[in-house]
Amino acid sequence: MKKPMQFNTKTIHGGQEPDPAYGAVMPPIYQTSTYAQAEPGGHKGYEYSRTHNPTRTALEKSMASIENGEYGLCFASGLAAIDAVIKLLQPGDEVLSSNDLYGGSYRLFAKIFEGMGIRFHFVDLTDPQRVAEKLNDKTKLIWIETPTNPMMQVVDIEAYVAMVKGKNILIAVDNTFASSYLQQPLDLGADIVMHSATKYLGGHSDVIMGALVVNDEELHEQLAFIQNASGAVPGPMDSFLTLRGIKTLSVRMQRHCENAAQIAQYLAAHPKVERVYWPGFESHPQHATAKKQMRDFGAMLSFVSKDVDFERAKEILRKLELFTLAESLGGVESLAGHPASMTHASIPKAMREEQGVVDGLIRLSVGIEDSTDLIADLEQALG
To answer: Of 19, 35, 46, 50, which is the active-site residue?
Structure first.
């Protein structure tokens, strides 16, 4: 019996074999919509590329491998992947989700699916006892982001797995901020792990992609049916690029985390910074949970300057040179964003501010550049 591969090896070899046609080490880009059949139903496993494509199959196997899962499914975006999960539910079902949540997820939940009869409760998932009070016989899903976007709260996955044991409630974890390198929710008992693979898995800001990984065969069949029936699938070129990105995930994440730790410490000591949100600080309310369920503390952080207003935030963001002002995260280049007007603009202002997403909050996605250059850029921008 072969010894199980370690994570770094899985990113290169997990679920991968040389292409059977000519032995290509990298799966080719099968840029085709359809496949020849010798007779009706007499094909080689592929009929139509919405349903299956060999390049996408290679990526889905890789995704499953790095999450220690049995089945991977790839989608045209992270939101398309989330959409497929919610389509498992029926009108009248209820979902518990974080009150610190990516704005796109909130918009999908509140503006699309609530209108179809699914009820969402946005609660503080860092307090399992308070969440337990919201559970009822209509609850069918707990949707967890950890770390959360953009306040970097850490949710104890195992606590919710224990809470719903024996109940007909799914646990789904958005693992985008952590990546498979830092956190593997299926190992902690979750039913579904979701990625916006646009971010760390792709890693180069050149693809839009979503993914789900599960262990349960029946759940996989349900999601695969939705994937095919709804048709929100990625093309072969995007699948190829994401598979290439996964192969360098380990080395990139190591540098991302090293740089973020230095920048977090720098900002925390800066006289013009009011507060820094990063789970690596021992003072972080969920530091112990992060230490328990993550390999490291990630490369996402948020901070507020002492002049907490939109104009001050805009001034800092305008001055940045190496940190690019842009949506998204997780690429090799460092990015800065203003959640209140960008990623979280779809969340009502009062709800945003209740969670700390004030107009002066700046979110950083720390890249893999030289950390001294990144710190110098922040120094001149903070002025």
So the answer is: 50
Stated pTM of the model: 0.96
30, 71, 102, 277: the active-site residue: 102
- Residue range(s) in the chain whose domain bears CATH number 3.90.1150.10: 249-382
| 307 is known as an active-site residue | no
Q: Does the pLDDT value for residue 55 go beyond 90?
A: yes
Fold (topology level) of 249-382: Aspartate Aminotransferase, domain 1 (3.90.1150)
SS (H, E, C) the chain: CCCCCCHHHHHHHCCCCCCCCCCCCCCCCCCCCECCCCECCECCCCCECCCCCHHHHHHHHHHHHHCCCCEEEEECCHHHHHHHHHCCCCCCCEEEEECCCCHHHHHHHHHHHHHHCCEEEEECCCCHHHHHCCCCCCEEEEEEECCCCCCCCCCCHHHHHHHCCCCCCEEEEECCCCHHHHCCHHHHCCCEEEEECCCCCCCCCCCCCEEEEECCHHHHHHHHHHHHHHCCCCCHHHHHHHHHHHCCHHHHHHHHHHHHHHHHHHHHHCCCEEEEECCCCCCCCCHHHHHHHCCCCCCEEEEEECCCCHHHHHHHHHHCCCCEECCCCCCCCCEEECCCCCCCCCCCHHHHHHCCCCCCEEEEECCCCCHHHHHHHHHHHHC
Among the options 83, 156, 174, 359, which is catalytic?
Answer: 174
Residue 1's pLDDT is 39
**167 catalytic residue (yes or no):** no
In words, the CATH class of domain 7-246 is alpha beta
